[in-house]
């Protein structure tokens, strides 16, 4: 209830008394509730709310926002307040924000950092976009392999307040090369004089240039708390934590779902996204799909004479195109997800084609048999046979194409989701109609 009260208060005139009341209400809310409220408010009102918080809470709330949303607030906060937040952020969060800012503003913010923080930020900024290095934290507590457990614990205590995590501790040799990893629980449960080399375990690591999504999914699949990130020579350069991996996969999944629906993922929460941005996220796809759908019109025009002779064929067009599109979309969604999880790779395309062809044929056989019986009773056996055979053919084609397209997209280094539902629906509409009319001509001797 306090969240709604605070939202109503922020929607009115911001007098000194109202600001004081807003600060009191915000003090009684959790950071998560404040984040949720900021995501629903306009930029101006969200900045007012941030300014009612103490520095620690304001930073925690700001860092929890999407980078694109942060960039909008930076423009509204004012230079001093925005600079203070930027300087206090972690290096990896700074880089995400810098990617959303204009070059001049990004350069200005970088100039405000002290040499150490600028160096850490530049280390992350120097990694390729979309790589795991762009999402790692360089503030990692490493333990020399020559240390004892007691010495390692001493290093942890010294870095408690500035390290990204202390629950996963990379172990390195004298050259900084990763040789193992050590969990804090194991460290605490071991006698102080024990050498670290005796209690460390082999490290699951990521290379700084690897794809962020692929590395994050592998991270989560292994159920890790932290994963060391190394360079090409296996020297330790940073670490990724479980919250980083979850954020990466959430962004990727949101983008895939949006593209499967024929739109672009919103980069800010819905209520804080301008109407113009909502339109831009959808209009390009609608135009592309409208042009693609013209293929269907061309097919109908080619077979206009067939429709004129047997008008009843027109009644089944929505059924056939809809079934083909849905079958293709099901296959594409399944394979896109399997690619994201690593269950399928581009090398498996022949196996996927065979499996999806069999699945499509079985689905088509079931649906076609039902259609033959129902349409045959109502419109006669010949019409029933046309509909049954078309469903068998369309489902087989749609499932095979739907399974293949995401894999082909990945081979072409495109997002598999782009080739998913919208384009496959258009493709199966056109090909399904061609198959339909060819079968009708053959069976009905038109």
From TrEMBL:
Q: State the signal peptide span.
A: none
Alphabetized, the UniProt keywords read:
CBS domain, Cell membrane, Magnesium, Membrane, Metal-binding, Transmembrane, Transmembrane helix, Transport
Q: Does the keyword DNA-binding apply?
A: no
Q: Please, which domain of life does this record's source organism belong to?
A: Bacteria
> Would the keyword DNA repair be found if you checked this record's keyword annotation?
no
Where does this one sit in the cell?
Answer: Cell membrane; Membrane
Record-annotated CBS domain positions = 136-199
Tell me which PROSITE patterns the record gives.
CBS (PS51371)
- Any transmembrane segments, and where? 359-379, 385-409, 421-444
| Membrane topology category | Multi-pass membrane protein
* Alphabetical list of Gene3D superfamilies matching this protein: CBS-domain, MgtE N-terminal domain-like, SLC41 divalent cation transporters, integral membrane domain
**Which InterPro entries does UniProt cross-reference here?**
CBS_dom, CBS_dom_sf, Mg_transptr_MgtE_intracell_dom, MgtE_N_sf, MgtE_transporter, SLC41_membr_dom, SLC41_membr_dom_sf
Instruction: Cite the record's note on assembly.
Output: Homodimer.
Query: Family, per the entry?
Result: Belongs to the SLC41A transporter family.
Q: What does this protein do?
A: Acts as a magnesium transporter.
Tell me the protein's name: Magnesium transporter MgtE
* Gene responsible for this protein: mgtE
